[in-house]
Amino acid sequence: MAEQDALARALDLARDYIAARADRPVWATATLRELRAALGGPLPAAPIDPTDVIDALARAAEPGLVTTTGPRYFGFVTGGALPAAVAAEWLTAVWDQPASLYVMSPAASVVEEVAAGWLIDLLGLPAACSVGFVTGCHMANFTALAAARHELLRRAGWDVEADGLQGAPRLRVIVGDEVHVSVIGALRMLGIGSRQIVRAAADDQGRMGPDALEAALAAVDGPAIVCAQAGNVNTGAFDPLDAIADVTSRHAAWLHVDGAFGLWAAASGALKHHVHGIERADSCATDAHKWLNVPYDSGLVFIAHPEAHRAAMSLSAAYLVRSPEEPREPMDWVPESSRRARGFAVYAALRSLGRSGVADLVDRCCHLARRFADRLRQEPSIRILNDVVLNQVLVRVAPEAGDADAATRAALRFVQEEGVCWLGGSRWHGMDAMRISVSNWSTTEEDVDRSADSIIRAVRRQA
Ligand SMILES: Cc1ncc(COP(=O)(O)O)c(C=O)c1O
Questions:
Q1: What predicted TM-score, i.e. pTM, was given to this entire model?
Q2: Which of 203, 340, 375, 458 is deepest in the core (most CB within 10 A)?
Q3: What would the DSSP string read from start to end of 143-177?
Q4: Digit-coded pLDDT (tens) for 2-13
Q5: Which residue has the least CA distance to atom 7 on ligand 1?
């Protein structure tokens, strides 16, 4: 049968890809022009056999794939893909369940309900939190801030869903100076422009302090949302959440925490002190596709005010019939109406790791980040720019003479071209840096050592 043949072929191709994952070049080998030539051409005039489509797609795409699931990909903050989660994703595609209403997939609804409970428990969040399964932390930030906007304006006597923002009481938003750009993007979609946002000073690691926040809140009137951060995208640093919650509660402000990857520190006995106070947040956002190693895309939002969450997201129409037993209706908690049932993969990841497995994954990545930093520090012309408190390492070339920014950029290019590992670049406090993020379940000490050697080779060429 054509369908089964295509799936069997995909399974063979997937097995080959996984077997080669640790050895294939980490970055793509094909050029843009080669990829366009291999994948392009006119729309076929007539149907093509599904197995042939899969074969040709894999052949043409593979040289353009980045081995993000491999053990030496340290770019951005990109988790790998746990075996149980990948397999659950395949079934999700075969089952093809829209996670919109219970009636469209009772299993998808109950899996979200169960996974939501596990996550709240694992991350130490208030038991009454409502949870949304979204595409990523950007949309998790959006969902949380939509709930914040609803609730603060409701308290001020304004129905933002009905009356919009024109003429509404003014909402103030305070963020740390090192806020992630997705928070700004989320606020923009909610009618709060970047020039309307107040930035509170951050320290040398990117942490917003309670004093800076206090001063910023004291300078504004009216309802306020404060966006704090657990895990700076460059340094991995955490805002002091408990002290920040003291300030926000004094000002009756909504506290939102962007914890795209840092929130997972809550699952580790050794690291959870970093997120002390998270249970006092009104909302928080994270990704499953980063540190939980669920395949893309998968983000999570937790809101301590379910009514505000539902009011900001929920829609009704005559044909969208809700079930009488009042089960979870997945579309009440997310911005989309129709979407893939991404709860299955989150459920599979959590079930396969268990509580200790998530803690081990987080601890192991942090141990490997420290190992990276320790090895690189031994090289005289390398500086580590951040305190390695989590899984992020910022590396800068500091030659005895010459332009350190240019040397850092050149070293990064060499590392990327050599293909042993892949890191991205960034700027930190006006300095170019190479950015290492250890977020993959399959990375070993040997992978770190091989990658550190490649970075040191690249740096020596600049010295
Ligand atoms: C702190 C922080 N917030 C938000 C995001 C956005 O996450 P996503 O791209 O998964 O939507 C990121 C991504 O790296 C991040 O590091």
A1: 0.97
A2: 458
A3: HHHHHHHHHHHHHTT--HHHH-STTPPPPEEEEET
A4: 889 999 999 999
A5: 137
